[in-house]
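Methods — Computational structure assignment.
A single polypeptide chain was analysed. Its primary sequence is given first, followed by the predicted tertiary structure written as structure tokens.
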Amino acid sequence: MKVRCTNLNVSYPDGAAHVEALRNLSFECGDGEFLSILGPSGCGKTTLLRVLAGLVIADKGRIERFSPPTNGNGRILLIFQEDSLFPWMTVIKNAAFGLEMQAVPKSLRETQAGELLRRFGVAGRENSYPHQLSLGMKQRVAVIRCFLSKPGLMLMDEPFGSLDAQMRSTLQQELLALWDQNRNSVIFVTHDVEEALLLSDRILVLSAQPGTVVGEVHVPLPRPRSAETSLTEEFLQLKRRIVHLLRQQQAPDHVA
């Protein structure tokens, strides 16, 4: 799915005043593109995802979505940083939930879900409940559920932000492997420059609040990518460029 946003303006009430979250924000995400969004805390990254998901209505601006004629898939799914599994459902039922909503027969959806659960290290926990899983396993199941639903657009709000470095690296690789199979369009919010570079085709940098696009970085690093990619000179040059853009968005009294 291709997405085009034009001059989005979003504000929210704060007591007697209104706070601008986004101002004249415009960008495109191509069909099958992995697009990451970076910016200072409070710049409206999560607000943008909520607007794209239809959970928040923009004050002004336009959002256009173009589903490819080959499959016409207009589904949009949002993954949050916090646990989003249904606590009353087992792992296998959580993973297969999107397929159930599409009326896929039980045997087929549980077979498909089971294959991905085994592939990504959740084998043997199919009948467990979310409270019996580690945070890393919960996020695995949430990502698997999303990919099994085959959405046209995946919106991911720092899904690995609360994980330790080793688990984060593992899930990044699993995410890339799943994405490479289907090439869904992905808009991925993160605070981590290296994570954005490892995952993305392109990175947008937002200004401090109210958020608008102040920089765009194409990531020509060859795929597949791994942790070793972050040691290359090309990766480090891109990182320096993005860090410079982010530092320009800091308030003057916070700049070293």
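Note: DSSP finds eight helices and nine strands in the chain.
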